[in-house]
Amino acid sequence: MISRVSRRFVPALVVALLATVTAGCDIVTADLRSEETARWQKSYTLDASGRVEIDNVNGRIRVEPGEGNTVDITALKKARGSTPEQAKASLERAAIVESVTDGVIKVETRISRAPGITFNGGNLQVEYTVKVPAGAEVRLTTVNGGIEVTGLKGRVTAETTNGGVETRGVSGQLHATTTNGGLDIDLASVAEAGVRLECTNGGIKVRLPRDAKATISASVTNGGISAGDLPIDVSGENTRRRLNGRMNGGGPRLQIEGTNGGITLTGR
Fold first, then answer.
1. Gap between the Cα atoms of 134 and 71, Å rounded
2. pTM score, two decimals?
3. 268 and 157, same structural domain?
4. Strand pairing partners for 158?
5. Each residue's pLDDT tens digit in the chain (268 positions)?
6. For residue 141, is it within any domain?
7. Which domain holds residue 59?
């Protein structure tokens, strides 16, 4: 009899616990109704061969060309709380720290630890909008958030853990990587220094000019590879999950590596 009661009691207990957790999450979400924001903005002058670095924690990074040799950086801090006072207190946990030399402009987000339980920092984020000289080198890093880069001609390094990387019309050396999120890469050209793309969980889409010259090496563990009607002369080992070949006779290296998700190459 005791055994029967136990078997019936355990599922009921699990359901009750799940309901409690779910209700608790709903309460937390509903309770964060107050939002506070603060804008941080700076302008700098960058050397012709200079580099801009943005290091974020929670929030997206968006970069596009600016005017001349000026760098404009805007950081929008957003925080939520159950009251305006709590939201403001959470907002003050995010600090924007700058380190500037003639050759390097580095801006990073530092978030101090709050007392008690925090829920993945989801109630506090910083969104960056950055304008740089089109030919500048940029290094962009965030943990939770996407990265968007448009129209740059210099070297671009973009890395995120939870979020996607998207480029539009870039023509410089590119290294883009994400752990959880896709890569949506549009290339105006394939730079002589090459392009390297890596994604663990998510699809990889690449668009490049049909007349571009590139030596392509693509591989994926779980998923397939599609190159449509691009003019690629395959060579070496080529399977559903691996593609090696020369596009329009070969040229700069285009290396694509995926784990879980497909790889798609198309012309633009």
1. 10
2. 0.85
3. yes
4. 140, 176
5. 334 434 343 444 444 444 444 444 444 444 778 999 999 999 999 998 899 999 999 999 999 999 999 999 999 999 999 899 999 999 999 999 999 987 999 999 999 987 654 444 558 999 999 999 999 999 999 999 999 999 999 999 999 999 999 999 999 999 999 999 999 999 999 999 999 999 999 999 999 999 999 999 999 999 999 998 999 999 877 899 999 999 999 999 999 999 999 999 999 9
6. no
7. 32-133
